[in-house]
Amino acid sequence: MLRSRTKIITHSRSEPAYYTAMTSRLGIAAVLFFLIAGCGSSLQYTKRANENFDKRKDASEIEMLYETPDREHQTLGTINWDYYEPGMSAPNINDAAPDLRKKAASEGGDALIIRQQQPSPGQNKRVLRITAEVIRYE
After folding, report:
1. N or C end of the chain, less CB within 10 A?
2. Maximum Cα–Cα distance for the chain, whole Å?
């Protein structure tokens, strides 16, 4: 009888330590998840055209431009995105290009004009601040 009582006391003493360790691990995992998810999901699109356009190109066909084209076009909207790239190296525009193209295609655009691409100010150099115009050729 004394042995089973000793086991109960020993067992009940180890439970709080186990739960405390488990709780702190889950808390750290949750914080990391929300930090990473928050950084990667901040693509914002501001519509500038008065009408809606149907998708007319596949995302892979969307042009990436770095200056205003000579061709007649209409600006449909602006993309602002703090693009996060996990890993040890800083991201570049090519890392974000597939998602930028998908957004431009879904808004009915033909091309993107990259207006800004620079590391986010502050400590986190794995965030690239991007501003791009979605345009549609006339």
Report:
1. N
2. 92
